[in-house]
Design goal:
348 residues, D-Maltodextrin-Binding Protein, domain 2, five-stranded mixed sheet, 36% helix
Length: 348
């Protein structure tokens, strides 16, 4: 049995929810009012798709990586002349390459940051931001851990704070064992690291550094698998793939513990760790490269089908259609790049 997501992710048919739930989900946590009758545009390959060739490179978030990989696998059957490679260097690592013009697609589990926007402008890089799915950052323990039933946001804050004073499980809850906690979490280049710390610690609290970090979520999975006293966090897809050996910790944000599921992430009740996922696309490359145009068209048209297969929540129809409409405007030049038109919201 595979207990992690390989860097070359193989698409699986995971039965993890009804498509009707996705289409109807209000996603109120994101402020969207979703029209249930909005119909995304199916992908139709152009007649000359066999004549289109080129090389496309994506890099960035290990959270978005499995979805991009699933799209690449399916797209290869449609456009055999187009080669797409996918790296996993963390959202920060992907953005670093993206704003320097090294790659055409940046996978991101957070919005682009102010300093990255500034570098893009300095280097003359225009870009478009596209939402592709929703995710819930999942706090996990080893399946053999039989004492952690849930955690509050305040307990997570104390646990991950540099001055929280937490060494043993009993420091979090006196009813828990007086055993050292082994912590695993994303490295500083990870968008998951940024999002988690913003949601849990806020702007004024420093994160502890005495934990085992990695931008590769597979490393974090293996770490938690290796010890009953371990705790870590990463994207929902990695939990789904390893749920036989890991246990998700329900999070109490003030209204009682809520377990991360397709439904609770989609309706926003899994708070504050539900989030959108993105790809960023180089504007000049998008407008000039037919291969990149078809790949992004295919990505946005099929992400609703592929997201559940890799453990994420598809966009509601209205939002997916908005992204597709934006793409066509971007390709034609009728929609200005986000760092010219101000559509992208920088990370805090």
């Amino acid at each position: 049995m595979t207990l992690y997501l390989s860097s070359r992710f193989t698409r699986r048919n995971m039965i993890i929810g009804s498509a009707a739930v996705f289409a109807a989900a209000p996603l109120m946590g994101y402020g969207f009012a979703v029209a249930q009758d909005a119909t995304p545009i199916p992908y139709e390959a152009p007649d000359n798709i066999g004549d289109i060739s080129g090389d496309i490179e994506a890099d960035g978030s290990s959270t978005v990586g499995p979805l991009t990989e699933a799209v690449i696998e399916e797209f290869a059957a449609v456009a055999s002349g187009i080669t797409v490679t996918n790296g996993i260097s963390g959202s920060g690592g992907g953005f670093n390459r993206f704003v320097n013009g090294e790659i055409s697609v940046s996978n991101a589990s957070r919005a682009i940051a102010e300093d990255e926007i500034a570098l893009a402008a300095e280097n003359g890089i225009g870009y478009y931001e596209f939402e592709v799915a929703f995710d819930g950052i999942t706090v996990v323990v080893n399946a053999e851990n039989d004492f952690v039933e849930s955690m509050t946001v305040e307990q997570l804050k104390q646990l991950w704070s540099a001055d929280g004073g937490i060494v043993n499980w009993s420091d979090v809850n006196p009813d828990w064992p007086a055993e050292p906690i082994e912590l695993y979490g994303p490295g500083a280049d990870s968008g998951t690291f940024d999002y988690f710390n913003e949601a849990i610690l806020g702007d004024d609290v420093a994160v502890r550094t005495d934990y085992i970090p990695s931008e590769d979520d597979n490393v974090l999975v293996q770490g938690v698998l290796g010890s009953v006293n371990a705790l870590g966090y990463f994207g929902f897809a990695y939990f789904v793939e390893n749920q036989d050996a890991l246990r998700a910790v329900p999070i109490d944000n003030g209204s009682g513990p809520v377990e991360p599921t397709i439904e609770t992430i989609a309706d926003g009740s899994y708070a504050p760790l539900s989030r959108p996922l993105f790809i960023y696309v180089n504007a000049e490359m998008l407008q000039s490269d037919p291969a990149l145009q078809e790949f992004v068209r295919y990505y946005l048209a099929t992400s609703d089908e592929l997201a559940p297969d890799v453990g994420y929540i598809p966009l509601p129809g209205e939002i997916e259609l908005e992204q597709q409409t934006k793409l066509e405007g971007a390709i034609s030049g009728e929609v200005a790049p986000d760092n010219e038109g101000g559509a992208a919201t920088p990370a805090a």
